[in-house]
C-alpha cells in the first residue's frame, strides 16, 4: 500500500521540492502549511511537475487545537517531514518571541500528536547554523555545537534537544534531523523555486534578482576573511539533491534502518565555495551582467564552513550530485520564469 507522508511547510521552498521527490518515489503526500511564507499556487506547480496534486490543509501548527483536530482526521500518516518554521535570521533578532513560539510550539505540537496517534517517524529540518564558526573544518556530526548566534539558530539547537529528550522516553518514536548547509537553486522545470518576500537576505536570490534588474548591485559582504580570495566560504547544496536526502531519510525510518531513535546528519556537498567564486560562476554560466561591489562584513556572519558528508554517504547512501554551476543556472531559470524574462 502507498505510504502517506505528512509534509509540514510543504508549499515552501525546500518543502515543495521534497514533495515532488516523494511523489516520484511513490509516496502519497499530505501538506500542512499556514501559507505565512508561501503561496497556494505552488500546489498547481507541483501537479504540473508530478501529475499529482498533493492533499493540502491550511493549518497553523502553532495552534494546538487545530493541529490536534488535523491528526484526529488524518489517521493514516506513516511519517512526518517537518519543514514548517520561520527562517529569517535577521528578523529573528527583532522578533525573538515570534520565532521561539512558532518554531518550538509547532515541533512540540507534532511530537505530542505522534505520541497520541502512535506515529513513529519524524524527519526534521535542522541547520549547519548549530555549529556556529567551527574550530576545525570540515564539520562532522561530532563537531561540537556552538551557542547560537541568533534566536532562529537557537530554535534549531533547542529543537534538536527537544527531539533527543523526547526520543529517550518514547522508544517507539524515531526522529532524524538533517542539518542542511546552504540550500540554493530550483527545480529544473523552473516551475517551483525560492520566492523570498521583500529584499532577499540570502546570497543567491539577491544575485538572481540583481541579474533580473530588480536590484542595482550585489554587495559582497567582506573581502578580508582568512579564505583564499578573502570572501566568506559556504557549502552550497542543490535543493533537488537536498530534497532527495529527505526521501532517503524517510526510507531509513520506514524500513527501520536507523541505529538510534534520534539521529542527525550533515547534508551538504563537502565543498567550500567563496562568495566571489559563486558570483563568477553565475556570470560564466548565465552570461548575464551582474554588477557587484565589495562592502563591509555583515554582522553575525561566520568566515567559513563546509560539511564532512561521510556519514550521510555511508549511513544514508546519499550524496549531492549536482554542480554549483548547474544549480546557479537553475536558480536563474527560475528567476527568469517568475519575472517573465525570455
Ligand atoms: P520556507 O519559508 O520557504 O518554508 C517554510 C514553510 O513553512 C512556509 O511555506 C511557511 O508558510 C510554513 N510555515 C511557517 N510556520 C508555520 C506554521 N506555524 N504552521 C504551518 N506552516 C508554517 O522555508 P524553507 O527555506 O523551505 O525552509 C524549510 C525548513 O528548512 C525550515 O525549517 C528552515 O528553518 C530549514 N532550513 C532552511 C535553510 C535555508 O537556507 N532555506 C537552511 C537550513 C534549514
Ligand atoms: C551566504 C554568504 C554572506 C548576501 C543563512 C543562515 C543559515 C542557513 C542558511 C537556515 C555569506 C554573503 C549574502 C548578500 C553577500 N539558514 N552575502 N551578499 O548567512 O551562510 O546562512 O542561510 O538555517 O542559518 O544564517 O547564507 O545566503 O545569507 O549568505 O555577500 O547580499 O553570502 O555574507 O558570506 P548564510 P546567506
Please, could you describe this protein's structure?
With 342 residues, the chain is α/β, with parallel strands linked by helices. It has helices at 13-24, 42-50, 64-73, 89-94, 96-117, 151-169, 203-211, 239-254, 275-286, 310-316, 324-339; strands at residues 4-8, 28-33, 55-58, 79-82, 121-127, 174-180, 182-184, 218-221, 233-234, 236-238, 262-267, 273-274, 292-295. The chain folds into two domains: 4-184 and 236-267, Rossmann fold (3-Layer(aba) Sandwich); 203-234 and 270-335, Alpha-Beta Complex (UDP-galactose 4-epimerase, domain 1), CATH 3.90.25.10. The radius of gyration is 19 Å and the shape is globular. The site of nicotinamide-adenine-dinucleotide has 26 residues, from helix 1, helix 5 and strand 5.
H/E topology pattern:
EHEHEHEHHEHEEHEEEHEEHEHH
Query: Span from first to last CA?
Result: 44 Å
The CATH level-2 architecture of the largest domain is identified as 3-Layer(aba) Sandwich
- What would you call the shape? globular
- Helical residues, percent: 40-55%
